[in-house]
Design goal:
Helix content of chain B: 25-40%
CATH architecture of the largest domain in chain A: Alpha-Beta Complex
Number of helices of chain B: 3
Order of helices and strands of chain A: EEHEEEEEEHEEHEEEEEHEHE
CATH class of the largest domain in chain A: Alpha Beta
Shape of chain A: globular
Structural class of chain A: alpha+beta
Largest interface: A-B, 18 and 15 residues
Number of helices of chain A: 5
Largest sheet of chain B: 3 strands, antiparallel
Oligomer: heterodimer
Helix content of chain A: 10-25%
Number of domains of chain A: 2
Largest sheet of chain A: 8 strands, mixed
Number of strands of chain B: 5
Number of strands of chain A: 17
Strand order of the largest sheet of chain B: 2-3-4
Chain lengths: ~270, ~100
């Protein structure tokens, strides 16, 4: 485990209540993370996952490289052309080797969160999310489905949690949505707050605004299509399948056909 | 004509959602949802009950369809699911002996 040395620094990025402490000998790298994840940064408290980042010269082609996530000898090995990472889920210690740009650590954090959530009955999902009147709503779809569009159309009484990747945790008998710093085309992080989930809307762009509730089998199938999961691990995939089925049996799921104007939000309450 | 036997593959996760079975291949994360008739057949796929008996007992009696038509449709369905790798299909009982 890398030790923080003089000239280095550390910070903690807390998403969904789970802190990931990041330390590095490269203070500029830490400063860059604190700026990028502002609103989700806290003082490291050694309370969660701890990653030591070794900043090296750029390698690989970045996000275009093939990603490998596999469990071996008690730790997750997470490799892509532009980074190599390991994380031991028992000790919660890990290390990352990457260049001094944020995309690699951003990917590592998403993957680690997806692994933690899979074990706890939650998930990350390609989805915008927002809070209105104390209740959270997810707007899910693949790239181009309208996640950023519906986020941009949100009226002032709506608080955005993200326009790109939503964070969902099982809490008691229901589910809670949390803000994330993972931004899409909107280019800004969500608010670092959470609320109980009241609905999942599967986005379809059309000429009219229309809402229809869909059955649980179709809902589960379509939700699973949008859940982010990277690991080559049959047991976790099976767990995630159970989570998706459980989710659609507890949270109403709708297909939301919408045209790009603010009136669509009249259907969300 | 030989009997056909069916049993879910080991590499799947499945759950009945109201009257439709949702099946996921845990090897490649593909997800299938089966209609109510297919779900009934899937639920009865124990590896040792002949497909013809499953269709007669579970499909013909519950869905009011012609027995031979129902069997041919079922055969087509299970062949398709077997090709997808989520169902085992054989000319002999699969996995365990009938008790």
């Amino acid at each position: 485990m890398q030790r923080v040395t003089e000239g280095g620094g550390q910070t903690s990025v807390v998403i969904g209540g789970l802190p990931i402490d990041i330390q590095s000998d490269n203070r500029d790298f830490i400063a860059m993370l604190e700026k990028r994840y502002a609103g989700f940064v806290a003082k490291p408290a050694n309370a969660g996952i701890r990653l030591a980042v070794e900043v090296v010269a750029p390698m690989g082609d970045g996000e275009d490289d093939e990603l490998e996530v596999r469990y071996k000898d008690g730790r997750w090995m997470i490799n892509r052309g532009d980074f190599h990472a390991q994380w031991d889920p028992t000790s919660n210690l890990g290390c990352v080797r990457q260049a001094a740009y944020p995309y690699a650590i951003d990917s590592v954090m998403r993957i680690v969160h997806s692994l933690v959530l899979a074990k706890r009955g939650g998930f990350l999902v390609h989805s915008a999310s927002a809070i209105r009147n104390g209740r959270a709503f997810l707007f899910s779809g693949v790239s181009g489905a309208g996640k950023t569009t519906i986020s941009r159309l949100a009226p002032p009484d709506v608080t955005l949690l993200t326009d790109e990747i939503s964070y969902v945790r099982r809490v008691g008998e229901g589910y809670q949505a949390y803000g994330t710093p993972f931004a899409g085309d909107l280019g800004r992080a969500g608010e670092n707050i959470s609320a109980p989930l009241a609905g999942l809307y599967l986005l379809v762009q059309g000429r009219h605004n229309h809402l229809s509730q869909i059955g649980p089998a179709d809902a589960a199938r379509r939700l699973l299509r949008n859940i982010l999961f990277f690991a080559d691990d049959a047991s976790l995939v099976e767990q995630l399948f159970g989570t998706a089925c459980e989710f659609v049996s507890r949270v109403p799921v709708y297909e939301l056909t919408f045209r790009p104007d603010g009136e669509v939000w009249n259907l969300i309450e | 004509m030989s009997e056909k036997y069916i049993k879910p593959s080991r590499d799947i996760a499945a759950r009945m959602m109201v009257d439709e079975m949702v099946v996921m291949s845990v090897k490649d994360s593909r997800v299938f949802s089966l209609n109510p008739v297919a779900s009934v057949i899937w639920s009865a796929a124990d590896g040792f009950t002949p497909l013809r008996e499953i269709v007669a007992r579970k499909v013909v009696s519950e869905f009011d369809v012609d027995a031979e038509v129902a069997y041919q449709d079922a055969l087509e369905l299970v062949e398709e699911l077997a090709q997808e790798g989520i169902l085992l299909l054989a000319d002999h009982p699969i996995g365990q002996e009938r008790v």
